[in-house]
Amino acid sequence: MTRRQTVPASRPKPNGFSLVELMVVLFVIALMAGAAVLAMPSGAGDLRREAEKFAARTIAARNEAISTSASVSAVVGPAGYYFERRVDGRWTPLDGKSLTATDWDKDTRAAIAGQGDNAPANRRVIFDPLGLASEDLRVTLSHDGNAMVVIVRRNGEVAVSGT
Q1: Gene3D superfamilies of this UniProt entry (predicted)?
Q2: Residue 91 has what pLDDT?
Q3: Which residues of 51-75 are buried (b: 16+ CB within 10 A; e: fewer)?
Q4: Helix (H, G, I), strand (E, B) or coil at 119
Q5: Domains in the chain: how many in total?
Q6: Would you give the distance in Å from CA 101 to the centre of its chain?
Q7: E strand intervals along the chain
Q8: Is residue 26, in this structure, part of any structural domain at all?
Q9: How does pLDDT run along the chain (163 residues), one tens digit per residue?
């Protein structure tokens, strides 16, 4: 008896990609898009950093007043802020990188509470050698519909909060 050999039928080669391969590619694209969205800067995060930077510098100015036993002021306005020390009856700019004049970031608006139509553009808060502020100050920073508030209290406390 002769045995017949069977030759497997040749299958046509598939053209294109399998469903599993397409799903893997879509997963990788979605993963990369998610990472890109998380890496994009947000207006709220930038505004929070700016408010915290202003608050930290104001605290540094208060600490400068305490450590040098001299009055130190924070001058805040719609364009930015700077710090000065009272020397020989005059206000002189503070030296040092962190306490130099700083402008608000582009498109950031600063509203200073208590500023009416007749109020000066800039508002000065003076820290005495005990670290106490001459008056309360409330600065509202806004950008792209987000807002952060920096509050300086008469007891020298500086706080940041979102609205």
Answers
A1: minor pseudopilin epsh domain
A2: 92
A3: beebbebbbbbbebbbeeeebbbbb
A4: coil
A5: 1
A6: 18
A7: 72-76, 80-87, 90-93, 102-103, 109-112, 123-127, 137-143, 146-152, 158-162
A8: no
A9: 667 777 666 776 767 778 888 889 999 999 998 888 777 666 667 889 999 999 999 999 999 999 999 999 999 999 999 999 998 889 999 877 778 888 998 888 998 886 555 556 789 999 999 999 999 999 999 988 889 999 999 999 999 988 6
Q: Is the dihedral of CA 80, 43, 46, 142 positive or negative?
A: positive
CATH number of the domain residue 123 falls in: 3.55.40.10
pTM of the model: 0.71
Judge whether 66 lies within some domain.
yes
The domain in which residue 115 lies consists of 43-162
